[in-house]
Amino acid sequence: MTAKVLKKKLQDGECVYGTWVRIPAPVTVEVLGSAGLDFLHIDLEHSSIDLPMLDSMVLAGYSQGIPLAVRTASQNPADMYRIQDIGITSLMLPRIETAEQCSHLLSGIRYAPAGVRGLGGAVRANRWGAISLEEHLKEAEEETIVIVQIESQKGLDNMEEILDVPGIDVLYIGPFDLSQALGYTGQVTHPKVQETILAMIQSIRKRGIAVGIHVSTEEEAKYWAEQGVQYFTISMDIAFLRSGAASLVASLK
Hints:
- There is one protein chain.
- Helices cover 46% and strands 16% of the residues.
- It is of the alpha/beta class.
- The protein has one domain: TIM Barrel.
- The protein has an 8-stranded parallel beta barrel, surrounded by 8 helices.
- The N and C termini lie far apart (42 Å).
């Protein structure tokens, strides 16, 4: 699947499923990319993955034909298109709190006239110059997926204005960070947290923007799909590894 196909699925109202990658190794992308998921999220915000490692992980994603999204650790637009130049077409922007901040970051993701993404000459994103500039610009617009994450009270307060910013494909909800912002740290099933998420979903869907959320189980995914969520991250590489090992140890002992 390509990012373009993934984007079309969201526009058609279909659900898509991925998981988080925090282990800094291309083989992690290869293994999870062969599991049948729709995409993988590479987490630069909460891991030790750096740009050289990301470069190798992108090639592993190519080998499996799976789209990769990167959650950035930077608030610098130039860092966004540096990541795109090495072949990433989907970006998650965490800690978005104002429309101005969101617009500033999105400006680094799209080429003119929609943004100020720099033209890097021969880069992996344009097959090292093998395709024309016109074709590259067209592909970049068609395949770019922008995922905005609201995870603070300030972000909630400004959500309607943030949703007005052109170019947002997915508004992603992180229940753990949201629970902390609401004063119920870690209590993702608290009624206040659940009510807030449901209200967010309604507001986001009215704008024609897909809703994303992180879940830990199949049951959670089914529940939120019924509420209108389309874009799911389920668990993460570390959790899969640990749970598998812990289950084996428990059965042996």
